[in-house]
């Protein structure tokens, strides 16, 4: 089969991702429109979460208990308190749900959180780039066009509750944009001396108030 024939036979899969809400606590929305009907197949989006953004595994477990989302984190152990400069990247496998009235349309949303960054010079925001996800299909009973899909190395089951391994397939797709940028507020490095001085003064003031209250109301034998 020539490359021209393959391109004609395989309709483009389109991927759109958005970050909803504001601030450090956002919601990642992923929408996929497949190039062919995927009836009976599981559809997922695999994306790399850089160190500046993470999914809370405890929040994810709660959402899955209430059947509000299906996803896998790799690795599943996440330090939710770590700042960006000591955190590690994560791989997210987000299982998508079919949209009513469109057999080729799938979507899913999941809460994500931005990490604290180091203070920067001359800017009040750091940029976190979230690349377009890889589209995966697992058709345990269906059939995929061999020229459109190829086996993908994914160590994951067909669905989040199911532990049995499955063969996933991936395809090239047309992202709405190559990457999504998240602006994270950061402190100004020029203010470091002022912040340190105010912190020290506040600490000394609070310590003095505690000592004064202890001397006035304490009972010493």
UniProtKB/TrEMBL annotation:
<dbReference type="GO" id="GO:0005789">
    <property type="term" value="C:endoplasmic reticulum membrane"/>
</dbReference>
<protein>
    <recommendedName>
        <fullName>Phosphatidylinositol-glycan biosynthesis class X protein</fullName>
    </recommendedName>
</protein>
<keyword id="KW-1133">Transmembrane helix</keyword>
<dbReference type="InterPro" id="IPR040039">
    <property type="entry name" value="PIGX"/>
</dbReference>
<dbReference type="Pfam" id="PF08320">
    <property type="entry name" value="PIG-X"/>
</dbReference>
<keyword id="KW-0256">Endoplasmic reticulum</keyword>
<keyword id="KW-0812">Transmembrane</keyword>
<dbReference type="GO" id="GO:0006506">
    <property type="term" value="P:GPI anchor biosynthetic process"/>
</dbReference>
<keyword id="KW-0472">Membrane</keyword>
<comment type="pathway">
    <text>Glycolipid biosynthesis; glycosylphosphatidylinositol-anchor biosynthesis.</text>
</comment>
<comment type="similarity">
    <text>Belongs to the PIGX family.</text>
</comment>
<dbReference type="InterPro" id="IPR013233">
    <property type="entry name" value="PIG-X/PBN1"/>
</dbReference>
<comment type="function">
    <text>Stabilizing subunit of the glycosylphosphatidylinositol-mannosyltransferase I complex which catalyzes the transfer of the first mannose, via an alpha-1,4 bond from a dolichol-phosphate-mannose (Dol-P-Man) to the glucosaminyl acyl phosphatidylinositol (GlcN-(acyl)PI) intermediate to generate alpha-D-Man-(1-&gt;4)-alpha-D-GlcN-(1-&gt;6)-(1-radyl,2-acyl-sn-glycero-3-phospho)-2-acyl-inositol and participates in the sixth step of the glycosylphosphatidylinositol-anchor biosynthesis. Probably acts by stabilizing the mannosyltransferase PIGM.</text>
</comment>
<keyword id="KW-0325">Glycoprotein</keyword>
<keyword id="KW-0337">GPI-anchor biosynthesis</keyword>
